[in-house]
Design brief:
By secondary structure, the protein is α+β, with helices and mostly antiparallel strands. The protein has five helices and twelve strands. Among the domains are: about 80 residues, Thrombin, subunit H, CATH 2.40.10; about 90 residues, Thrombin, subunit H (Beta Barrel).
Length: about 250
């Protein structure tokens, strides 16, 4: 009887002890969804901005002063580092006629720069900075071959000298042509976008949500005399822009 009682007790104990449950894919998916519901993630635009920011520079152009030693500001534009040796793409109209060019990198380093190449037909200039940060990063460039209207983009730059500033939008069209306000130049094969851009954004990068550079912001369309954004901006495709430096971008 004692043995039977002991055996019965062992059986009951074994039944009460439950084996650990094996996690299924359904359990894992539920846990991930729960985490996502309770975690605020950076937006796509925020991630794109963070990715490209180390490569964005402020570009300042100065004209010779009357006494030859007091340069006068001509305005502020934007540039993007395309080679980590301090090679910068910007718009030709940002620095055209300048006696002195200065750039400020993302880490705050300010230095002079010189023009090492131009592509007037696309309003592009290539600068070489005289000094560079120790950890300078060049932007990643991306082909526009599969770019489509509706694709999300981000413009980063210094509108009216304020920045760096980010504005998000979409590609509005491709292969557009823009005529400069004075009627002196037509630029073709442009990317049209609706991310806000204003004077000062010129020369800055237009990027994907991965922070990869698609083009260089070059113009805004406004049929009035106001130099402000009304929803139509243009960028030179990065393929054309890289050609200004004499190298393929990919």
């Amino acid at each position: 009887m004692a043995l039977m009682a002991l055996a019965l007790a062992v059986c009951i104990t074994l039944l009460l002890i439950r084996a650990p449950r094996v996690l299924t894919q359904k359990d894992i998916n539920a846990a991930v969804l729960k985490t996502l519901e309770n975690t605020t993630l950076p937006s796509a635009a925020a991630k794109a901005y963070e990715a490209v920011l180390p490569s964005v520079v402020r570009v300042m152009a100065y004209a010779r002063g009357k006494d030859d030693d007091d340069d006068q500001s001509m305005g502020v534009g934007t540039g993007v580092v395309i080679v980590d040796k301090g090679v910068i793409l910007t718009n030709l109209h940002v620095i055209q006629g300048a006696h002195t060019i200065k750039v400020v990198f993302a880490d705050g380093l300010e230095t002079t720069a010189r023009v090492i190449g131009t592509q007037p037909e696309n309003d592009l200039a290539v600068l070489q900075a005289d000094k560079i940060p120790d950890d300078l990063h060049a932007a990643t460039m991306r082909s526009t071959a599969d770019l489509q209207p509706g694709d999300q983009v981000l413009a980063v730059g210094f509108p009216f000298g304020i920045g760096p500033s980010a504005s998000a939008g979409v590609v509005s069209g491709l292969k557009r042509t823009f005529r400069s306000p004075d009627g002196g130049q037509d630029i073709g094969n442009l990317i049209q976008f609706d991310a806000a851009a204003n004077p000062g954004n010129s020369g800055g990068p237009l990027v994907t949500m991965d922070g990869e550079v698609l083009g260089i912001v070059t113009a805004i369309l406004n049929p009035t005399r106001m130099r402000t954004f009304i929803g139509i901006g243009f960028a030179v495709p990065i393929e054309n822009a890289a050609a200004a430096f004499g190298v393929p971008p990919f």
